[in-house]
Amino acid sequence: MCIRDSSNIRDLGVSAKFSIVNRNIFKGAEIFKLSFLSSFFNASQDANKEERFFNSWEIGADMSLEIPRFVAPFGINKLVPKRMSPRTMFTLGTSIQQNIGLDRETVTALIDYKWQYNSKKTIQLDVFNTQYVRNLRIGNYFDIYNSEYIKLNSIAKEFFNDPDYNLERQQETVSFMRTIFNDSNFQSNNPDSYRNNLNILDRYNIITSDFLIPTIAYSFTYNNQRDFRDNNFSFFKIRIANSGNIGGLLSNKKDNNNRKTIFNIPLAQYFKTDIEYKKFWEIDDRSVVGFIFFYFNLINYKIRFIFIIFHKTKPRIARFRSYKCC
User: Fold this and answer.
1) Contact indicator for 264, 305 with CB cutoff of 8 Å
2) CB atoms closer than 10 angstroms to residue 197
């Protein structure tokens, strides 16, 4: 359990995780792990306007099964010999979150294969890595993003030619944005306001809609470190990931925003390459000099907005839906 100050909207938080591990569940060195986690926070911005001290929380569970061999059809398991330490990982997890108002549920499923080509080279293949995110309280959007409401309200005053007009946050805002979007006369006479309304509508659709992220990825790692005491070594890793494009080939359906869907859920589509390189030199028994380089390139089809959180030397990238600011 830990207590932490996590962000500018979460003043104080408590988190805990409980795990059960069985390292020989099927008598073949399979590792089964079941974890439960929970986090409770005090959020300074609370659109739900609750009186509880811990007004923001997240609970979840995940289970994984690691099998020390390939589990695959068509004799694929014979392609990698046992000396390369092949393993198969199955993971399934879910979580539910109440944050500053736009609560969400998440379900994640993963199947990946990993083997050690030799003592320095490791290969990992994510053949099925899918995440589904469902937003729960989209009606709170304009309570959370008050600046968006202020901009939209100024457009409404202009549209209705009434300086005292105020949009009703919960009921009227969404229908008003769509009315402006379909009004060609307003577009011609008020192009700046029309463009501002379009940007607000795009952001609303991105943040409030559910989405599916089906990813396939290949990773190659080179590491010549002999053991943890070796301070003279190089590390190189490249990861190539593709999301949504194979799924897009299986479905020709699109939503009202012209985005490809599966089961009426918009797909996140992109192609991404990550490269990481580290080099360390031991100067003496107490001094080590290191060089770290990280690079990624994103070719996006339906994603134009990514958020990067730097933790120590390794960025963690959270994928979001498409957004174009103008």
Assistant:
1) no
2) 25
Q: For the segment 62-120, what is each residue's pLDDT rounded down to a tens digit?
A: 999 999 999 888 777 788 888 999 999 999 999 998 876 678 899 999 999 999 999 99
Sign of CA dihedral 206, 207, 208, 211: positive
Residue whose entry in the numeric block shows the structure tokens 């320095």: 120
What's this model's pTM, rounded to 2 decimal places?
Answer: 0.72
Amino acid at position 322, single letter: S
Helix (H) or strand (E) holding 193: helix 191-208
Domain boundaries, given as residue ranges, for the chain: 141-207
Residue 203, H or E segment: helix 191-208
Question: In one letter, which amino acid is 91?
Answer: T
> Any idea which of 12-16, 62-66, 84-88, 304-308 has the lowest mean pLDDT?
304-308
Angle, helices 173-181 vs 191-208, to 10°: value is: 130
Cβ neighbours for 130, distance < 8 A, ≥ 6 positions apart? 108, 109, 110, 212, 213, 214, 215
C-alpha–C-alpha distance, residues 288 and 311, integer Å? 21
Determine the 3-state secondary structure of 170 from DSSP: coil
Overall residue count recorded for the chain in this entry: 326
Q: Measured between alpha carbons, how far is 99 from 46 in angstroms, rounded to an integer?
A: 8
Residue 132 sits at the vertex; the CA angle it makes with 127 and 138, to the nearest 5 degrees, is: 160
* pLDDT above 60 for 317: no
Alpha-carbon span 77 to 83, nearest angstrom: 13
Sole residue written with tokens 């659109």: 47
**Residue 113: CA count within 13 A, CB half-sphere:** 16
For the segment 274-299, what is each residue's pLDDT rounded down to a tens digit? 999 999 998 888 888 998 898 888 77
